Amino acid sequence: MKIGAISDTHGDFRAIREALKRLGDIDLLLHAGDFYEDAQRIQQSLDIRVVSVVGNCDYMVRGPAEEMMAVGGRRIYLTHGHLYQVKKNLVLLIERAKSLGAHCVVFGHTHVPLVSHVDGLLLVNPGSPSTPRSGTKRACAVLDVTQASVKAKTIYLDEDN
Known about the structure:
Elements: E1 2-6, H1 13-23, E2 28-31, H2 36-45, E3 49-52, E4 66-71, E5 74-79, H3 91-99, E6 104-106, E7 114-118, E8 121-125, E9 139-145, E10 150-156
Parallel strand pairs: 1-2, 2-3, 5-6, 6-8
Antiparallel strand pairs: 1-9, 4-5, 7-8, 9-10
């Protein structure tokens, strides 16, 4: 199964459309917060399921802070990351994902893309297609999920991948 991941879109639908185009044919889209309402609008325009969570900029918006899903025999945990202080380090996020039995965690908040393995857990931050930080480029991510594994790749919007 091919899964798109996006985060920290902050209402920039030009960037969202560009990211969706770069993701190509996906079976599912994960939106890791900021803005939850963007994910709702994306859902209305796509013929696929969109799973989303609220972030720290989703003021007065009702929605889940985290989602746990089983996809292709793998467990994927989705959260924005602000509740786990991911700008400081990933310790609390990793502990939470492991406590849930996740194989992969998708998060945002830092606006910095990341694909990394820590103690058998795949960490994926798709970055931001609209407002990258720390010298990174506009990005999203794609996950390839099979019964045996979850793999991820960062897709930079301003480069050929």
